[in-house]
Write a structure and sequence with these properties.
Keywords: Cell cycle, Cell division, Chaperone, Cytoplasm, Isomerase, Rotamase. One of its GO terms (cellular component) is cytoplasm. It is found in: Cytoplasm. By secondary structure, this protein is α+β, with helices and mostly antiparallel strands. The protein folds into 3 domains: about 110 residues, Alpha-Beta Plaits; about 100 residues, Chitinase A, domain 3 (Roll); about 180 residues, Orthogonal Bundle (Trigger factor, domain 2), CATH 1.10.3120.10. It contains 11 helices and 11 strands. The strands form 3 sheets. Strands 6, 7, 8, 9 and 10 form a 5-stranded antiparallel beta sheet that branches. A 4-stranded antiparallel beta sheet has the order 1-2-4-3. Helix 5 crosses helix 10 and helix 6 packs across helix 7. It starts with a strand and ends with a helix.
Length: about 450
């Protein structure tokens, strides 16, 4: 094959690739010989079919496959010969092939940029860290108790108040007619939970077991059931019993519910979990500072093909979100103006993401950062747990899908590079409270939701 470079501008390289007809013919015959082992032609044994007959019957069938193969080989030869670091799948523009003539193609390749070695020791960052204190552990333990609150019957003379749960029977009618689904012989309702029609729970406060009451309530004007929205409804209710919240005691039995032998062991587990959460939040905070600093400090050519793909991904996601949440109230001209403005904004975001992605990839490559199979398996397990009842299906998906695995590897790799940077750079460790760390991370999360 004959290769001639025709263009070299920035990260773009163009080549003229000419593959002689003899080479194509040879590949075609090799493919037909292989095919002859699996096809049947009357009068000939498999593998013994004459080439002219094979060409007559099957050449058109395998020609496209052969041409694709020789073009792939030619493109790979260009990449290897010129030692190119390719950013995207090369574009191949091929003229129509005429039998007996050479196949001519233009191969356009966009390269990864050459990034100078980064001296991480020259960078300085504040790293916010937060220690777990006894107060935080006690607060977490108290939340755990509240999450396992039990309701116990109160004395029959005790009047219901907010925080109590009542077991009641009720019947609702509009203009004397029953409401579909508007009656029950027994329903539990926590007063103050605001889980029923607005105002309904207030009518039950002060009642006790055995009490009956009738009252009218208007359904909200924006109630989801349109046939009930804004309608005055008459309810008849009877309180069957009243229960109060009882927090579980901090006993050995309570600790055993969580697989621990004592309250002290449970506190230790809570402390370890909080410490892990703090470390992750601290890493998120440091990551944003590092990425902002790098985006400000490094400028180099980035492959526009990668930017286009990133922008397309961002824009498609944004369109889905807008379609789900935004009513169409603007006129066409105003919408087009807003869209143009948004596209410019997200174009810059796409460029930043590509630049930082390439930079972190280069730093990781330079320092031999890898994602182990064990780390990938852990990430897959975490994904599987998100889909109860579909565990095997999700597991099979990741096991058989290399692209899905790559999507899980990417954030793990990125976090490991950030940790490497924190090890190599000059770090000013700054002790902060959990409230301060959370405020910083919440701001980052909110910003990411809009970018």
């Amino acid at each position: 094959m004959d290769i001639t470079q025709t263009k070299s501008e920035g990260l773009i390289r163009e080549f003229n690739l000419v593959i002689p007809s003899q080479e194509i013919e040879k590949k075609l015959e090799e493919r037909l010989e292989k095919l002859s082992l699996s096809v049947k032609v009357d009068g000939f044994r498999s593998g013994k079919i004459p080439m002219p007959i094979l060409k007559q019957r099957y050449a058109s069938r395998v020609k496209t496959e052969v041409l694709e193969h020789v073009l792939q080989e030619g493109t790979r030869h260009i990449i290897d010969k010129h030692k190119l670091r390719v950013a995207l799948q090369p574009k191949v523009d091929t003229k129509d092939y005429e039998e007996g003539k050479a196949l001519e193609s233009k191969v356009i390749i966009e390269l990864l940029p050459d990034i100078e070695k980064v001296d991480l020791s020259k960078f300085k960052f504040d790293h916010c860290v937060c220690k777990v204190d006894d107060k935080e552990v006690e607060e977490a333990l108290e939340r755990l108790r509240k999450n396992h609150t039990e309701f116990k019957l109160v004395d029959e003379k005790t009047k219901a108040k907010k925080g109590h749960a009542v077991h009641l029977a009720f019947n609702g009618t509009i203009a004397g007619k029953p409401i579909p689904g508007g009656a029950s012989d027994g329903m539990d309702l926590e007063l103050g939970s605001n889980t029923f029609i607005p105002g309904f729970e207030d009518q039950l406060i002060g009642l006790k077991a055995g009490d009956k009451k009738e009252f009218d309530i208007d359904f909200p004007a924006d109630y989801q059931a349109k046939d009930l929205a804004g309608k005055k409804t008459h309810f008849s209710i009877e309180i069957k019993n009243v229960k109060e919240k009882v927090l579980p005691e901090l006993t050995k039995e309570f600790a055993e519910k969580f697989g621990k032998s004592s309250i002290e062991e449970l506190k230790k587990a809570i402390s370890d979990q909080l410490s892990e959460e703090h470390s992750y939040m601290s890493l998120l905070d440091a990551k944003r500072k590092i990425l902002d600093k790098f985006a400000e400090s490094f400028k180099f050519d980035i492959p526009q093909g990668l930017v286009e793909l990133e922008f397309k991904s961002i824009w498609e996601q944004l369109q889905k979100e807008m379609a789900q949440s935004s009513p169409k109230t603007k006129d066409k001209k105003e919408s087009e103006k807003d869209e143009t403005k948004l596209k410019k904004q997200y174009q810059k975001i796409a460029e930043r993401r590509v630049l930082l992605g390439l930079l972190l990839a280069e730093i990781g490559r330079e320092h031999h950062v890898t994602v182990s199979q064990k780390e990938l398996e852990k990430a897959i397990t975490q994904e599987v747990r998100k889909y109860p009842g579909m565990e095997q299906k999700v597991l099979d998906y990741y096991r058989s899908n290399t692209q899905a695995q790559a999507a899980l590897r990417a954030p793990i790799f990125e976090d490991k590079v950030i940790e490497l940077i924190l090890q190599k750079a000059t770090i000013n460790e700054k002790q902060v409270s959990f409230a301060e760390l959370k405020k910083s991370v919440d701001a980052i999360t909110q910003e990411d939701e809009h970018s």
